[in-house]
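FW: tagging you since you asked about this chain on Friday. Here's the raw sequence from the shared folder, copied in full. Didn't touch anything.
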Amino acid sequence: MPADTHVLAEAPPASARNASIVNLGCKVNQAEMEAAARLFRARGVRLVRPSDPADVVLVNTCTVTGVADEKSRAAVRRARRASPDAEILVTGCSVQVAPEMFAAVDPTARLLPNDAKGGLVAELERLVGLDDRDARTAEPLPTLTGAEPVTAVAVEGADDERASIERTRAFVKVQDGCSFYCTYCIIPRARGAERSLPPDAILADVRRALAEGHREIVLTGINVGTYDGGWSERGFRGSHVRSALTLAGLIRRLLAETDIERIRLSSIEPQHVDDALLDTWRASDGRCLPHFHLPLQSADDGVLRRMGRRYTSAEYAATVGRIRTAVRGAAVHADVIVGFPTEDETAFEATVDFVRELEFDGLHVFRYSQRPGTAATRMAGHVDERVKKRRAARLLELGAAARARRVTTRRGGRAFVLLETPLPDGRWLGHAEDDMLVAVMPRPDDPPSLENALADVTVVDADPAVLGRAVGRIDDLRLASRRLPRRLAMVGA
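HL: got it, structure written out here
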């Protein structure tokens, strides 16, 4: 990276009184920024909304699409307008890929790319004005592994309420980076090669989440299925011949060595769903939740090859079948990219037919976006934007139907719901074990706050107010043993 784009001043600033955080992108970004928010809070720095003036502003950027890059740069501009005199620190994937763009947007901003993110905690300490003596006597610093609740960022095309209700679940980062180099994806360049956190560090984060009152953790990473405990012998196309610890082995340790009640995976590549992982789910007595998010991207094998994906559509379908056979009531969600170069109408219709046939329980839809330096930008057969929008709209309709169908299939059955937030009409909203959103009305003798309670619920019907949301009736309730930390003043842009 050019030296003149990485600007970190030598002289420490005056002690910061307040700070704000703007976060864009994936669950890994969110987990890292929650750890930064915890540092601010521990140092007595008040967190304010990004629209309010602040002494320090931390912007964590995303580069997964061209739109994400534009939003990242716009976030820096907004931060400078809101806080003209602030120290603005910009980090994350977009800075890693194109630091010169941010230097042009705000020449006074301090740029910290991902390959220097190990120094983020030290830089934040400097920005909040601790001298060497303060740093030696302060409480231990939080890691950037991220055992914290997060505010979710809505996925493009996923029109639901998750962006406003994520609080009770703790996202625990177990892995970072990716070595797969799919031809459309810039993340390996932005995040680096795959690497795993030590299992003891992950166990410490889970125990911290438990101590704060969390009852569910979500294991997250850029390519979580490559988790290897810190060492692996690589085989064909990046597969692991041997490793210090597999993802299934890590989860078995979490089950055996902690009292966490619910474990969920954020997303996993289909080829990583092996028998050991499914055996772990079966043996967990319900603590591993029946919800699997498997990126599909396309169901046309020619498109999959050109994407650099590591499975065929038949292999993907077989994995879904194995999940549904092994894990009772499992919900399977998928990601699809429309408009990849050479995706003609025949290839797109193959994806539509595949989505209908597999009857997914949720679908996230993305339009292909050219990313600089990726192989797909050099391919022939780029698809017109109007065609991409039309194809995305068709798949979004199928996704909406999938969410509605899931509610219908669960009508009259039981759901175990982690209650998270009150609704204006007096009901409480939360996630069932299969990730379905369920709204329930408290019973007359229930306490005023049901936050973080686990409710045994009968699914009564679909909620007419929100597509894909269920209405439930509380049959039994297990209240939380302690209050969660207060909601942090952080937004996802």
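FW: Confidence is low (pLDDT under 50) at residues 1-13, 131-166.
HL: agreed, and The chain has four domains: 3-144, 145-289, 292-410, 414-478.
FW: great, closing this out.
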